[in-house]
Write a structure and sequence with these properties.
This protein is an alpha+beta fold. It is 46% helix and 9% strand. It has 39 helices and 27 strands. The strands form 10 sheets. Strands 1, 4, 9, 12 and 13 form a 5-stranded antiparallel sheet that branches. The two termini are 22 Å apart. Belongs to the patched family.
């Protein structure tokens, strides 16, 4: 075995094996970076050789381990809860949401069903009796929905959200009121008598027709029932709520309707009402005082005259409120209707979902297709169904994507020469990547990382595209082993040459996605962690299991088996070189196969003028019988690829080229060497490339200014669906959001009343807050509470002045006067609870509009118990709830104090059941009990004080929120108001969907810039550590930063908004971009010669695997284009496709140019002397097969002796054809001797590699 030359005289083409290089480098001959890389490559070499020796065992154990991890998919959980997916982890919103749920639980929730009516002809007015009649038709159809489940029939009246039913001592009256109590429905039809048709309750009294809201006059009914029951308390409640005649006192849309009540204002005139006038200012439910629906909740596209009178509208909206599953379960728990079905909360949820789906279906089908109006229906279940559909795995697309990748891998690796073909390797590689993806996801499931829509819709294809890249890289490197590599070291040599690149790209991917996990959105954090873990599993599969596949394929070729169909022998494995008979002259070889054994002495010389490596090969040849070893040529031939020798002419001598057909020898390496690199690396081409990429960067910087923040729900729902039509109409016409200003515990409410009023005023003054009608007071519990106190104070003052109430008696006073009497004498002292001297010395509300602190919590108990409708309208949601104290001016025993579990609720509803009397929020309703008069005792009992409040809220409506900037402005204003209140000692925070889902945009761009900057620094450190060259790492990071900026700018031109999802892709683009840059950079770093030559060699080595990797990524992403969700197409397919194309351009065009200009010096420099003497071997005899050997050699040449075996037989067509004898790329000289040509066989030396 030839002794290696001294390190100081390394020829350009010499690459010592890692096991030989290490001791030489330790001697200090080479730089430390090369030593470290050689050490790392030595480890990879040992790993590859070990895998090759035990390839069967490694493959079995690897598949077993990955298969076991893939079984973890059985415990995967798909998360579809919006709050769990989008609320920032650990943020103040998350903490506030936790506080709300801790105090209120889930009982405050409810479900909404909405109908939006719009004209088919855009801009048409809907404020007409005809349009409202169509709206009534759709709403009535939807309200009559019934579903049968668990052997029961469920209609709206059973499951709708009601105010709660007061307990009446008369059982018959109680049951009648329970059946009649109206559902909460916000509809423009409530301005008319026809709104009563949506209420499905009915009751029966002897001697009367069925009582329904269409014929119910509460005032008349109470008059008729007066002689039979004591209903004074109930009458007072209705009077305070201003129920009046309810619906029968409202105009009829069609006065000629036979059922239009005589009490309707237009019953006798038979004139159709003026719809715009009736709807101006909104409508009312059955209570005029507490159930006011503002026109912004009912009408969209409103136009008014200068005086503020309503003229026209383009949309109508009705909202049906249902109980939550927990409330429905509690309502029917223990009821005779459900005692036999094992009633549970899950069953209640199933009932609600079934009813909602049927509601949406029938509402959308209510109007005929030729109608002038169209109905859009939506429910909370519809949104859940969309999220579930969004999160489902499309088996067809997954299978199609992987089959497409299998076909691509197989086709690109198939060769006509069976010994070179790697189709089976490609198939096995793609299947291995699929298993690695499954195992990575299974590991995520075992670690408790929940899946979401991004996991199921995007990750399988993204991971496939990224994972197959390394498969192509190893497969390309395996077929290009250096000359003379022993068969048993082929896998080790492959890992030694490519392991560094694979490790660098995989680590960069993992670091990028782990950095993307810094985005505090749970859905995207889970997605980023899952991608990082899947990339790690793929890295393990590529580095450990795939080399075993390559080793088995090498065994297949050694046994001369066909590719893919490995059970059949290969007919073409022995053919190496075909030479025409005429080129042999008089030594024509008979038809058949013979072998030419040539002893080749290669003399290598480096020219100073061009820095080209010149190799002169003058072999002596003779014919020998074919050897018995079919792979002997594999083991002993140089086996260099066409890119290993750069042809160069020597002087003016003429040469005859031994050429092959273009279709037989063309590949991407050939294209890079002879076409792409020479064109790209010319001076004017470099200037053009720099100018074009500079222009692209400048244009992208402008595009970055066009990027807007936001992610609307309409972007997620598939376009063209009914759900998308509803959401578009809602966003356009009813962009209203209910929010609440929550006050926490930790401060004294009684002494902070002024600060609470100031907070409410400050919040009300925000631009986005919808102001209440001018004729109505603000709807907050503190205002309602104060107004109630002022009302009973006025009643007391009247009773005191008239003598009906005295110092020691309230027997003859009014109900409100008696309440004030009991409150005024309270001291709050347990030892002396009553002080009658306070009757005339104090007021329930002072002149500043504040409640005396000592009466605050006692009065709160009385208000909560005595004014349930006012409490419900205030939407206070107190916690802890004040005790339920029932007022009876004749009671002095204290029995009017009841616990929350007292039996004052009818219909099985639990105490403190919530009621929604407003558009969205639930309101706690307390029981009402009336009792017959009892003898009065002069000493009333003490009223228990409520506990200090820890939770209360003020409701608000936000309007005009169309763009993300509008949301951000409203959120910032709300936060500023809370911060100002905090300085006054009031702890408060805003609550509602805008704060849950839009507050992330306050710091999204800052988080994005921080994550990208940190990732670029990490990428620089990783590249500098593995490449051991900060210069090269800096150029890579520069290109990656340009890619990120350009991708961001292109998003602006494409109209893609910035949200947490594009942020994850932008952050991950840094890691994905490493795939396109590090191979070229590493190829440049480990070659010798001028910068241009090294850039050309790097392109020749990496163009094929980088291009294959890009194409495989695009094929993986291609299946995303078939998604039903436009969101997936725009935010994943388009963005990732642009990223892949940018990476391809920057990695194969811009980076080589930058390296050719600013690249670092080579790691190994040639140290031997240059000789001007170039010897030309003498010409062979005409028609001969041997070349003469120069008797003398200049001292500057290194001599290498080897053997080459070729087979000769005449081809069917004229010309020369080259067929590799092994899996090595064929060594093809640029010039061969001819009868009339020069005898020189000269070539440029290989692009030398040092690592």
């Amino acid at each position: 075995m030839a002794r290696p030359p001294p390190l100081q005289e390394l020829p350009p083409g010499y690459t010592p094996p890692a096991r030989v290089a290490s001791p030489q480098i330790l001697a200090g001959s080479l730089k430390s970076p090369l030593w470290l890389r050689a050490y790392f490559q030595g480890l990879l070499f040992s790993l590859g050789c070990g895998i090759q020796r035990h390839c069967g065992k490694v493959l079995f154990l690897g598949l077993l381990a990955f298969g076991a991890l893939a079984l973890g998919l059985r415990v995967a959980i798909i998360e579809t809860d919006l709050e769990q997916l989008w609320v920032e982890v650990g943020s103040r919103v998350s903490q506030e949401l936790h506080y709300t749920k801790e105090k209120l639980g889930e009982e405050a929730a409810y479900t909404s069903q909405m109908l939006i009516q719009t004209p088919r002809q855009e801009g048409e007015n809907v404020l007409t009796p005809e349009a409202l009649d169509l709206h009534l038709q759709a709403a009535l159809t939807a309200s009559k929905v019934q579903v049968s489940l668990y052997g029961k029939s469920w209609d709206l009246n059973k499951i709708c959200y009601k105010s709660g039913i007061p307990l009446i001592e008369n059982g018959m009256i109680e049951r009648m009121i329970e059946k009649l109590f109206p559902c909460v429905i916000l509809t423009p039809l409530d301005c008319f008598w026809e709104g009563a048709k949506l209420q499905g309750g009915s009751a029966y009294l002897p001697g009367r027709p069925d009582i329904q809201w269409t014929n119910l006059d509460p005032e008349q009914l109470l008059e008729e029932l007066g002689p039979f029951a004591s209903l004074e308390g109930f009458r007072e409640l209705l009077d305070k709520a201003q129920v009046g005649q309810a619906y029968v006192g409202r105009p009829c849309l069609h006065p000629d309707d036979l059922h239009c009540p005589p009490s309707a204002p237009n019953h006798h005139s038979k004139q159709a009402p003026k719809v715009a006038q009736e709807l101006s200012g909104g409508c009312h439910g059955f209570s005029h005082k507490f159930m006011h629906w503002q026109e912004e909740l009912l009408l969209g596209g409103i136009a008014k005259d200068p005086q503020g009178q309503l003229l026209r509208a383009e949309a109508l909206q009705s909202t049906f409120l249902l109980m939550s599953p927990r409330q429905l379960y509690e309502h029917f728990r223990g009821d005779y209707q459900t005692h036999d079905i094992g009633w549970s909360e899950e069953q209640a949820g199933t009932v609600l979902q079934a009813w909602q789906r049927r509601f949406v279906q029938l509402a959308q089908e209510a109007l005929p297709q030729n109608s002038s109006q169209q109905i859009h229906a939506f429910s909370s279940t519809t949104l859940d169904d969309i999220l579930h559909a969004f999160s489902e795995v499309s088996a067809a697309r997954v299978v199609g994507g992987y089959l497409l990748m299998l076909a691509y891998a197989c086709v690109t690796m198939l060769r006509w020469d069976c010994a070179q073909s790697q189709g089976a390797v490609g198939l096995a590689g793609v299947l291995l990547v699929a298993l690695a993806v499954a195992s990575g996801l299974g590991l995520c499931a075992l670690l408790g990382i929940t899946f979401n829509a991004a996991t199921t819709q995007v990750l399988p294809f993204l991971a496939l595209g990224i994972g197959v890249d390394d498969i192509f890289l190893l497969a390309h490197a395996f077929t290009e082993a250096p000359p003379g590599t022993p068969l048993q070291e082929r896998t080790g040599e492959c890992l030694q040459r490519t392991g560094t690149s694979v490790a660098l790209t995989s680590i960069s991917h993992m670091v990028a996605f782990f950095m993307a996990a810094l985005v505090p959105i749970p859905a995207l954090r889970a997605f980023s962690l899952q991608v990082a873990i899947v990339v790690g599993c793929n890295f393990a599969a590529v580095m450990l299991v795939f080399p075993a596949v390559l080793s088995l394929d090498l065994h297949r070729r050694h046994c001369q088996r066909l590719d893919v169909l490995c059970c059949f022998s290969s007919p073409c494995s022995a053919r190496v070189i075909q030479i025409l008979p005429q080129e042999l002259g008089d030594r024509t070889v008979p038809v058949g196969i013979a072998h030419l054994t040539a002893t080749v002495q290669a003399f290598t010389h480096c020219e100073a003028s061009s820095q080209h490596v010149v190799t002169i090969l003058p072999p002596r040849a003779h014919l020998v019988p074919p050897p018995s070893d079919p792979l002997g040529s594999e083991l002993f031939s140089p086996g260099g690829s066409t890119r290993d020798l750069l042809g160069q002419e020597e002087g003016p001598r003429q040469k005859a080229a031994c050429s092959s057909l273009p279709c037989a020898r063309w590949n991407l390496a050939h294209f890079a060497r002879y076409r792409f690199a020479p064109l790209l690396l010319q001076s004017h081409s470099k200037a053009m490339v720099l100018a074009l990429f500079g222009g692209l960067l400048g244009l992208s910087l402008y595009g970055a200014t066009l990027v807007q923040d936001g992610l609307a729900l309409t972007d997620v729902v598939p376009r063209g669906t009914k759900e998308h039509a509803f959401l578009s109409a809602q966003l356009r016409y009813f962009s209203l959001y209910e929010v609440a200003l929550v006050t926490q515990g930790g401060f004294d409410y009684a002494h902070s009343q002024r600060a609470l009023f100031d907070l409410h005023q400050r919040f009300s003054s925000l631009k986005a807050v919808l102001p209440p009608p001018a004729a109505r007071a603000p709807r907050t519990w503190l205002h309602y509470y104060r107004n109630w106190l002022q009302g009973i104070q006025a009643a007391f003052d009247q009773d005191w002045a008239s003598g009906r109430i005295s110092r020691h008696s309230c027997r003859n006073g009014s109900e409100d006067g008696a309440l004030a009497y009991k409150l005024l004498i309270q001291t709050g002292d347990a030892r002396e609870p009553l002080d009658f001297s306070q009757l005339t010395t104090r007021k329930l509300v002072d002149k500043d509009g504040l409640i005396p602190p000592e009466l605050f919590y006692v009065g709160l108990t009385m208000w909560v118990s005595s004014d349930p409708l006012g409490l419900a309208a205030s939407q206070a949601n107190f916690y802890p709830p004040p005790p339920e104290w029932l007022h009876d001016k004749y009671d002095t025993t204290g029995e009017n104090l009841r616990s929350e579990s007292g039996g004052y609720w009818g219909g099985g509803r639990e105490p403190s059941r919530s009621l929604s009397l407003g558009p969205h929020r639930p309101y706690p309703l307390l029981p009402l009990l009336t009792a017959p008069p009892l003898p009065c005792h002069p000493l009333p009992s003490a009223v228990p004080a409520a506990q200090p409040l820890e939770f209360a809220q003020f409701p608000f409506l936000l309007r005009g929120l169309q763009k993300t900037a509008d949301f951000v402005e409203a959120i910032e204003g709300a936060r500023a108001a809370c911060a100002e209140a905090g300085r006054a000692g009031v702890r408060a925070y805003p609550s509602g969907s805008p704060f849950l889902f839009w507050e992330q945009y306050l710091g999204l761009r800052r988080s994005f810039l921080l994550a990208v900057c940190i990732l670029l620094v990490c990428t620089f450190l990783v590249c500098a550590l593995l490449l051991l060259n900060p210069w090269t790492a800096g150029l890579i990071v520069l290109v990656l930063a340009m890619m990120t900026v350009e991708l961001f700018g292109i998003m602006g031109f494409l109209g893609i908004k910035l949200s947490a999802i594009p942020v994850v892709i932008l952050v991950a683009s840094v890691g994905i971009g490493v795939e396109f840059t590090v191979h070229v950079a590493l190829g440049f770093l480990t070659t010798q010669g001028s910068r241009n030559l090294r850039a050309a060699c790097a392109l020749e080595h990496t163009l094929a695997p980088v291009t294959d990797g890009a194409v495989s990524t695009l094929l993986g992403l291609l299946m995303l284009a078939g998604s039903n969700f436009d969101f997936i197409i725009r935010y994943f397919f388009v963005v990732l496709t642009v990223l892949t194309l940018l990476g391809l351009l920057h990695g194969l065009v811009l980076l080589p140019v930058l390296l050719s200009i600013l690249g670092p010096p080579p790691e190994v420099v040639q140290m031997y002397k240059e000789s001007p003497e170039v010897l030309s071997p003498p010409a062979p005899r005409e028609g001969g097969l041997s070349w003469g050997l120069s008797p003398t050699l200049p001292q500057s040449f290194a001599r290498v002796t080897t053997s080459m075996t070729v087979a000769l037989h005449p081809p069917p067509l004229p010309g020369a054809y080259i067929h590799p004898a092994s899996d090595e790329p064929t060594w093809s000289p640029v010039a061969t001797p001819a009868a009339s040509g020069s005898s020189n066989l000269s070539s440029r030396g290989p692009c030398p590699a040092t690592g």
